[in-house]
Amino acid sequence: MSNQQLLDKAKRVVIKVGSSSITGSNESNLDQIVDFAVRLRSAGKQVVIVSSGAIATAAPLIGLTVKSEDLATSQALASIGQAKLMSRYERSLARHNLMPGQILLTVDNLDEEVTRANALRALERLIEIGVIPVINENDSVATNEIRFGDNDQLAARVSLLAQADLLVLLSDIDALYTRPPSEPGAVPIAIVESDDELVSIEISGTSTGYGTGGALTKLAAARLATSGGVTVLLTSAANVPKLDSADCTHTWFKPVSSRD
Domain total for the chain? Predict the structure, then answer.
């Protein structure tokens, strides 16, 4: 199935973007991702964005060039950077006469029934009034012991909460490969229908720069989302401008269950 067919079928789409895809030398990607979200919305889709980038946005402003391992510093950076990050989304969406609505979540918010229901009501209401929800982990209060760990996991849980049809995981890499893509002989995998197909591939997990992702976290998120009936499309942020108009290198994870 092509990217276009996946997008045509979906009524509610969650788009997840990582820190490295929209900060530093890749800052311009944010406008392209917003333009993609707006094109989906114009086609009658409901769109939710799960966006990392708060800590990576703040660090250069106060002279940090490496990821801090100090929890209090990370929390402070998240507090500074989240406001800056939302301002970037606000400016970008204003080009389309739209606005973002911020939702910050912790693990407890999605683990407990009452707070999970509150989060869903806020999400649904934002969509209803024509605002694009932009969700991030509440890193200013999250602890090392109780956190999602990466926004791939958060995006998967949000897609299940919102009963999304499609989760688009945007990465620096354009697909899941048979081995790390930098190695000779690595081949992109177009479709994953079951975990059995992944037995023979070599997967690496990384934590570089300000991101905490990697192929392992993308795969874990895809497994969680597809287990609840959500289709997952993994591709690169660089592919976004053509994602809804042409096929490009990607990996499609078929849902292993159906909500029908």
Answer: 1
